[in-house]
Specification:
There is one protein chain. With 110 residues, this protein is mainly alpha-helical. It has a domain of 74 residues. Helices cover 62% and strands 0% of the residues. Helix 1 runs antiparallel to helix 2.
Length: 110
């Protein structure tokens, strides 16, 4: 795989930030409280509460990802950008494409 330029990585981060912001917006809409006067039935209400809990967890994960993406975007011009934060080796381009929010190589992330 060819080497990615900082500009390529910046565009990748910007696209991923936009997608994550959209996902957060959708999750927030899905986590609205369930009105007790909605006539959806006891089982359906329990299902809706369970689904809301799952979406809330996804929302927290997306918010954490957004924080990491913005951190990477803010530090793209730093001297160590593109190198693993733990071992210092160059992060492969494929890793940057698949997980741009991660400052670690595959070996150190695991």
């Amino acid at each position: 795989m060819k080497e990615l330029s900082r500009q390529d990585i910046l565009h990748l981060l910007e696209r991923e930030i936009a997608k994550t912001i959209e996902a957060i917006s959708a999750y927030k809409e899905s986590t609205a409280p369930i009105a007790p006067d909605d006539a959806i039935g006891r089982i359906s209400r329990m299902d809706a509460i369970n689904n809301r809990t799952i979406v809330q967890a996804a929302l927290r994960t997306a918010e954490e990802k957004l924080t990491k993406l913005k951190y990477m975007q803010d530090n793209i011009d730093g001297p160590g950008f593109g190198n693993c934060a733990r071992c210092g080796t160059k992060i492969p381009p494929g890793r940057l494409i698949l997980k741009p929010e991660s400052p670690f190589c595959v070996r150190c992330a695991g």
